[in-house]
Amino acid sequence: PPNLFSNTRSEALAGGKKKSDIEMYQALQSNTKGSTREDPLKILDPSSKKLVTVESQRIMAVLDDTICRIRVVTLLPELTKNVDKYMSIISDDIAAMLKEHYKLEVQYSKVFLLAEEEETVAHTGSAKRGGIDGEVELMSFEALSTHRSQLQQQIRHSTRSIIRLFTRNHSALKAILRQVEERPAAATSLISTSNNLRSIIMEKLLTTREEEEERSRYIQQIIQREAKASVEVKRLEILLTEASEEREADLNRRNVEIKKLKSDLAQLQKTSNETNKRIKSDAMKQEVTDTKTSEGKCERLNSTITQLRTQLSQAVAEHRQSEQILRSRKIKTESALETWIAKYDTDMGERQDEYEQIDSVYKVEKTQLEDLEEKFGVLEEEYNRIVEERRVNAELKAEEERRVRLLTKAAVVIQAHWRSYSTRKKLKQKKKGKKEKSTDATLR
């Protein structure tokens, strides 16, 4: 209701200054925090916590949609400048619209600057200036104003189109509002004010007629309390005036003491000035004595300097003679060094040629050695094969000879046994024949 915040203004008077409706609402809300006892302002809160009527719900829906659009629109400067940075959370059509919107903003800023320049110049038929795309062209003030109006209309249409695209793409809208926070200070203040306005409208929509009447009666009681409090304040102001007068009397007493101290300080300064004069006179006498002493020292130092300069000139002459001798030695040494360097270069050149010849011979012999090693490898394999065959043949031949010797020995042994056996058999037969003849003879 209209009389709600008009009554709270009279309650919030402090030093003759009035607060706005939003500030008073915030003050009331802040006063309710931190109290351990029952909140006296709880009666000002609406009893219902949800909107019942369709009209009030529609009002809040429109207000919420407006705040959301304000948040999106205030992010457009950051989004248009850094489209590539946010490509991962917005769609391609939104990115294209943002780029087109950025181009329109750039064109509008250029036209705006040209219009300001035109206003500072006398109104002539035309003025030579930079074109929209950086080219030099002639454009009258009327044409510039018309183009500016067209760009304004295009920017409005582009902004509405971007808002529609974000409204259709809820995921991109949520991601942008969650990740992007770079806004101008004025935009942040506008959003904060809009949220505060939403809270106030929400409270008004939740408040019924009976609650409004009860709130008005309660505020009237608060005003009466405030009147009583103002009487108490006046009484305290009187006490404050008396205390101020006592303080002024105390200050006057202290001022007298300060004046006395200042007079004492002036006397001290006078005494210190006399002391300073006496010290300065003593210092001047000491300075005269020191000056005479320093002049004597300067004379002695000047004589010493003269002697040292004479010694320096003698040393310079001696050093120049020694320098000439050393220079002649240096020249001789350099000529000898050049001779030795030339000789060294000649010797090294000859040795380099000799080395190159030896290296070429070495490379040829190395190639031949590699060929011979390759051939020797083949011959070595053939030689090893032949040696192996000869060894095997020798072993076979030795085995054969051993077998022949064994067979020969066995044959000799067999033959010997056979001869002995034949001999014994013949002997037996001879003995048997003799016995038979003797038997026959006996029988005869």
Short description:
84% of the residues lie in helices and 2% in strands.
Task: Explain what the structure shows.
The chain has 444 residues and is mostly helical. The protein has helices at 2-11, 21-32, 54-81, 92-120, 141-168, 170-179, 185-206, 209-443, and strands at 127-130, 136-139. Strands 1-2 form a two-stranded antiparallel ribbon. A hairpin with a 5-residue loop joins strand 1 and strand 2 (136-139). Helix 1 (2-11) packs across helix 8, helix 3 packs antiparallel against helix 7 (185-206) and helix 4 runs antiparallel to helix 5 (141-168). The longest helix has 235 residues, at 209-443. The radius of gyration is 66 Å and the shape is extended. The relative contact order is 0.05. Residues 1-25, 31-38 and 122-137 have low confidence and may be disordered.
What keywords describe this structure?
single chain; 444 residues; mainly alpha; two-stranded antiparallel ribbon; 8 helices; 2% strand; extended; disordered N terminus
Break the fold down into its secondary structure elements and pairings:
Blueprint: H1 2-11, H2 21-32, H3 54-81, H4 92-120, E1 127-130, E2 136-139, H5 141-168, H6 170-179, H7 185-206, H8 209-443
Antiparallel strand pairs: 1-2
